[in-house]
Design goal:
Layout: H1 3-6, H2 9-19, H3 27-32, H4 41-51, E1 54-58, E2 65-66, E3 69-70, H5 73-78, E4 87-92, H6 98-109, E5 121-127, H7 131-135, H8 140-156, E6 162-168, H9 172-185, E7 191-196, E8 204-206, E9 211-220, E10 225-227, E11 234-240, E12 256-257, E13 263-267, H10 278-281, E14 290-291, E15 297-301, H11 307-313, E16 320-324, E17 343-349, H12 356-368, E18 375-381, E19 399-406, H13 408-414, E20 423-429, H14 434-438, H15 440-450, E21 460-465, H16 471-484, E22 490-492
Parallel strand pairs: 1-4, 4-5, 5-6, 6-7, 7-9, 8-10, 9-11, 11-13, 12-14, 13-15, 15-16, 16-17, 17-18, 18-19, 19-20, 20-21, 21-22
Antiparallel strand pairs: 2-3
Helix pairs in contact: 2-4, 6-8, 8-9
Length: about 500
Amino acid sequence: MSTRAKLTDDIVFCILNRATTDISNGLQQWKKSLYVLAVCRQWRALGKFILYSWGFVGGKSKPYKLADVPTNLELTHAIGSSVYVKTIIITHKDTYSAQELLLCVRDALSLRQPPWFNIKCIRITSHFASHALSTRTLVDSEAAYIDNVVQTVQKAIPKLQVLDISAIRTDAAICRFSTQLVHNYIAQLNHFIYTGFPFKSTLCHAQQLKTLYLYLTKAQPSPNIIFNPTRIKSMCLNNVSASYRWDNFAHTQGQLVFNDLEHLTLACTGLSAQLISTGAAHNIHSIPTPSFPRITRLTLSGICIEQSLLERMLRPPLKCLEISWWLFDFKRLNILDLRFLDTLKIWHNLNSDSNYINFFDTTNSIFSMAKGVRLVQLSLYTVPESIQWKHAQWSHLTRLHLDLTTTLYYLFNMVPMFTGLWELKIGRLRMPTEEECADPDTYLPGLKLKMRPSASKIKNLLIEFRPQFSPEYTNKVVAMLRWYMPMLVLVSIPSD
């Protein structure tokens, strides 16, 4: 029976999507994925919609060339598949110059007439050029040529909606190209994602944005763009200085309201992890205080945030709060309970704590207010075996993830400390001694004699066994775990 008789188009389309998930990683991966077109006519007919929706200029692989820069757009156009292209990925590598890359972009987009109406997304990646290339001054003729390429791109792709730029210490030519693209397209974009140094452009306005992600590599003012806050639904501001964070948003009559914002991420990596007063945040100039009437998810990562702002955000309709690499006591914010939340997740590195008593005092305070929160998760990294879990009062904690290599005996002694857990994840189970491995039939029953089944509510246990464990020994350990934690439903044991 043929493949077509066995599988519907919907099923084949799902298979093809699964088989080609890595295409966005680059032209080399795209080339490897072409094999799916050779399976049968049905796969070829459906696969072209997925494979040829990606256009690449630059990267590592060189199967198809324009101006000595790898690209698949020439092949895509030659076989009549250019109408399927939806995303263009432009990648600068040190194997060719920025000028060669931009020439290839211009020539590739000039292959098709009329314009590439189906292209909605451009991604640009250019990282770690030499200091000389990244700081050089462009001569007038080079700047004019780059501006001409930008105009070609804009004419060829008139309906762009997504611009994703990752430019960390990039070549000066790529920097100008990216900056001009931002300036020319920003007014029509729905999604704008930028990673790199703060860049300068002439003043422009972003009126249609629904997604705004700024990952700046220095805590400086964000680009010279005025964003309309009323339509943004998801926003991430990473390393945008607290003193300038809201400067680039249009406000009227002293009011800055993000009417539609549902998900907000604020992050300042490498800064002091402490609350700062409103006065300290605005020590340069006064700006309107933002409000988020519809926010449902707030993510804070290693951030200094104004205390008064945080107090106003920790209230309904907020449903999900995620905090990473930073612990603070909610009682300092006059927050007495968190029952309005549905999800509370905290990530913390214990290597940053010199005093574990302070860590337990803070977490005990946080989790004491988490009664009624459906999911309360704590993920700890660099966990020492010497830590005294007896200080933990985490009765409302439901998920605990520990980056910890430990023994079965340690695990059995730790579990009773957490009465509310229904999921536990442990980094690795330490290799047993030679004596234990030599006679597991004596060691494991002997361990049973020292213990009794716990009252643990844990249903999901995720733990890694090293590959040196024999299948027989692993099965005996799993049986021991099920004996000790009677409510276990799932024991997941991925190996290295």
